[in-house]
Amino acid sequence: MLYKIPLLLSKKIKKFFQSPFMQRLKQKYPWLFAFIRNRFRTGDFFGLPFTILFTLTVINLSMLSEIAENVVNSQKVKNLDIQVSGAFFNLRTPFISLVLYYFTQLGSVYGVTIITLLMSILLLWKQRLYQLLALLISVLGSGISMHFSKLYFHRERPLNLAYYTTESSFSFPSGHSTSAMALVGVLCYIALLEIRSKRIRAFVFITGICYILLIGFSRIYLGVHFLTDVAAGFLLGFLWVLLAIGLMEYSALKQFKLSRS
């Protein structure tokens, strides 16, 4: 999908670099002009597609770093977490709690493992090896980084508000939120690449987004995570989704070039 963006914008990009400002920049600082031009190069993964992914990664890391720092140092953020968790605790009902309890199991280690295995078999059967590798990198990479992040931050869960007895792991970041983003984020992107119908693509994408958000919501509603745990989990999972997208984009652009040669 990203490799198509440069192709769609190629005329506008060419016009931009032919503008008077860029031509003056070319004459005065040819090395800078060449660097910028290469970052917007079309038809090359390390041109505009890589620039887009790199920019999103930097933004993501900045936001994740800010949340992590506030969780450690900011009493205001800690108070906000407690207030949000307390508000959901007061709104909790037995029926919704039970429904969300069973739903949130989809984001557990067992749920993610089963879904990953089923999708891996499907991708292997369809011989989508780059997509299979991207899926495994996202799921396994996010799981490993999430595990060590929990050990590093050593944050206790809001046990006094928990709907059920939780596992013994620490709270920050949320493992369910990380895994949901890493798994379903990649699956949504694969669907965008593989499904031709715009309506079905939109349905799958919206369903995937709702699934991810509902997993995060369930962790706060059930009192097993703070708001910042879930936000950090989404950001950490999305980092691995970006890496997986990079791999798939490289493969898609490679295949696109072969089809035109």
Automatic annotation (TrEMBL):
Q: Keyword Transmembrane on this protein?
A: yes
Q: Which domain of life is it from?
A: Bacteria
Keyword list (alphabetical) reads: Membrane, Transmembrane, Transmembrane helix
Transmembrane spans: 45-64, 99-125, 132-153, 173-195, 202-224, 230-253
A Pfam match is PAP2
Domain Phosphatidic acid phosphatase type 2/haloperoxidase, which positions? Answer: 130-245
Q: What is this protein called?
A: Phosphoesterase
Organism of this sequence: Adhaeribacter arboris
